[in-house]
Amino acid sequence: MAKLVTGLFKNRITADAAIREVSQMGYTNDDVSVLMSDATKSKEFGVEAGSKAAQGATVGGVLGGAVGAGIAALVAVGTSIALPGLGLIIAGPIAAALAGAGAGGAAGGLIGMLVGAGIPENRAKVYEAGVREGGILIGVNAKSDTDADALEKVFDKLDAKNVRQE
């Protein structure tokens, strides 16, 4: 059974590097979830939600489209939702699952969402604290156990914190 590999990155530079390496392994936007705070998105990407710059980033992301275009494209296009009450931006399969549930899954907060995605509660609490402190959480749905091990090595190499397979 394939695993979800997660890691908390300290900034856009290391998160972008991870997304590039993941794309080189054959993964697409449909395999990668990204979660960050609104404050982190504004700080790291310099784009305020609803601004002309955000609209331009979305158009550019649609034209570029691939995961290899970096984390900005992943967050700007595809299934990406903002949860203003929680101050979060979520992109990828986790966002799709929330959208399918009418975003009602967000009512339980970030920890509830992460647990619902298959992350144990104790680790979800660590990830929540990291996201609140400005980290960027990336999760990849590995296609095999071998890929899960390789993804874990990529995340470790890029100094991600709390890298795990679930």
Task: Describe, in plain words, how this protein is organized in 3D.
This protein is α+β, with helices and mostly antiparallel strands. It has one domain (4-165). The chain is 49% helix and 19% strand. The chain contains 8 helices and 6 strands; from the N terminus they run E-H-E-H-H-H-E-E-H-H-H-E-H-E. The protein has helices at residues 12-24, 38-45, 52-64, 71-76, 93-100, 109-116, 121-132, 145-157; strands at 4-9, 32-37, 80-83, 88-91, 136-141, 161-165. A 6-stranded antiparallel beta sheet has the order 3-4-2-5-1-6, with helices on both faces. Strand 3 and strand 4 form a beta hairpin. The longest helix is centred in the N-terminal third of the chain and has 13 residues, at 12-24. Mean pLDDT is 76; it is low at 49-68 and 101-105.
Q: Outline of this structure?
A:
By secondary structure, this protein is of the alpha+beta class.
Largest sheet: 6 strands, antiparallel
Radius of gyration: 14 Å
Shape: globular
The residue ranges in which pLDDT falls below 50 over 5 or more consecutive positions are 49-68, 101-105
Rounded mean pLDDT is 76
| Helix proportion range | 40-55%
What's the structural blueprint in terms of helices and strands?
Elements: E1 4-9, H1 12-24, E2 32-37, H2 38-45, H3 52-64, H4 71-76, E3 80-83, E4 88-91, H5 93-100, H6 109-116, H7 121-132, E5 136-141, H8 145-157, E6 161-165
Antiparallel strand pairs: 1-5, 1-6, 2-4, 2-5, 3-4
Please name the defining characteristics of this protein.
alpha+beta, 166 residues, 8 helices
